[in-house]
Amino acid sequence: AQSVxxxxxxxxxxxxxxxLLRCNYSSSYSPSLFWYVQHPNKGLxxxxxxxxxxxxxxxxxxxxxxxxxxxxxxxxxxxxxHMSDAxxxxxxxxxxxxxxxxKVTFGTGTKLQVIP
Amino acid sequence: EPEVTQTPSHQVTxxxxxxxxxxxxxxxxxxxxxxxQILGQKVEFLVSFYNNEISEKSEIFDDQFSVERPDGSNFTxxxxxxxxxxxxxxxxxxxxxxxxxxxxxxxxxxLTVL
Lengths: 116, 114
Known about the structure:
Strand content of chain A: over 45%
Oligomer: heterodimer
Shape of chain A: globular
Helix content of chain A: under 10%
Strand content of chain B: over 45%
């Protein structure tokens, strides 16, 4: 079984302040975890991914996420929000099972609003 | 850098009509996927495709849907008789090989059924 929970549907921050988008997951296997960003009317862009290497993962645009197995969390952070960060963010869990079969589950998304 | 492409970017159709959404995955990738995102909702898995056959499909992927890789480069999603509730953004994705978890997503096709 595999699931992902994004705890906040909307997050609002002021420009220049830190961003925290929360994600918890469950998986029967050692999962890979991803954060994707979707700007309005655009496709999904990979921000960063965790695939069993370093637990602190750095991504594009200053974002990073820490994989905490004990807390089953993979929260996304950024020290200082920029107006261009306003978008929807999806946490995704992926597991590859026998035969190469892969199951991917998306979270419900968190809309980030950045206030000038 | 190679990327997944999708055409058209926006498709408008009448209810009951057939539509074909096209995707060109990254050339050396082996696994292919379709997802949909109804406006305001989360991204949902539709179907995965490997070695010229469907490897998994969700309950959404009923008899109205079919997928095909007709020529070794394109990967298509056909909806035989569209319904209003098929209006959504449809994303194609591809994955290179077994053991690689990252899927590479296309920009999506927005389907509007009137």
